[in-house]
Amino acid sequence: MNWKNLPVLLALFGIAMASTGVLAQPTLVDPIEVFEGSLDDPETEEIAIHWDVTNLTDDTLNLMVTRSIIQLVSPYNLPYNEQSPGSYDRFCWGPLCYPYGTTSSFSTEGYLVELLPNETDTTFIADFYPAGIAGVTAFNYCFHPVGWDNVSEAGTCQQVLFCLDAENCALNVDESAIQTSPLFPQPVTGISSFPYHLNGAPDAMLRIHSIAGHLVKSENLRAQHGIIYINADEFESGVYILSITARDGGQVSERFIVQ
């Protein structure tokens, strides 16, 4: 071997490793997958799920948390309004417990959790408030570095099911590739939300038509999980039809009123 070429070979090796997307990822200590309880139990008014996050790698990790929706009960209080009915949630990470309904922790320095090699963080808590609504609500929590669109690839994720008085503590199975929760609140007077889950479909098309059939809005949905927000200020008063159509033909639709 020509040792003069060693620096070049090492540099090429580093580039090859980077191109594979191999990342140092955290490890979750005793993560909780399912919580089952009854609304009759006073202790279920606020359900706190906790696990530690540890760094078993040789690299220092700077992590944020992203919470994505898998399935919601109805009604669900999102975006959160203290006067509105429905279940709601929040999480704590690092120095903060974030506002109800927050989807991710802050990505700026000072709010990230720094984990040195072999260090463990104990600050993560996922709070769920059933607010008297029975059923199964499911979230995915991903611990990942800043700047990655695919957080499940860049970090470590854990799915959690909150089951309250549910006959079957499992995710709903639907023939359609799309799962949604009802648009809430209705009628739309401010901002209402329509959570969706594409359930594996690569993308889908959102369309909103007036009751007369005129296309008012269209958008390509690429995120597997998300929330469509309907702002009353962007629509004239009237009746509208919101539809989501996946590439494989699966479709869901909902009628809503703007006042």
What's the helix and strand layout?
Blueprint: H1 6-19, E1 27-29, E2 34-37, E3 47-50, E4 52-54, E5 61-71, E6 88-93, E7 96-97, E8 113-115, E9 120-121, E10 125-129, E11 135-144, H2 151-154, E12 156-164, E13 179-180, E14 191-197, E15 204-210, E16 215-221, E17 225-231, E18 238-246, E19 251-258
Parallel strand pairs: 2-12
Antiparallel strand pairs: 1-4, 3-10, 4-9, 5-8, 5-11, 6-7, 6-10, 11-12, 13-14, 14-17, 15-16, 15-18, 18-19
Describe what is shown at a glance.
It is built from two helices and 19 strands. By secondary structure, the protein is mainly beta.
Explain what this protein looks like in three dimensions.
This protein has 259 residues and is mainly beta. It has two domains: 24-164, Immunoglobulins (Immunoglobulin-like, Sandwich); 179-258, Sandwich (Immunoglobulin-like). The protein has two helices and 19 strands. The chain has a five-stranded mixed sheet. It has a four-stranded antiparallel sheet with strand order 3-10-6-7, with no helix packed on it. A hairpin with a 2-residue loop joins β6 and β7. The chain is globular. The termini are far apart. The model is unreliable at 1-21 (pLDDT under 50).
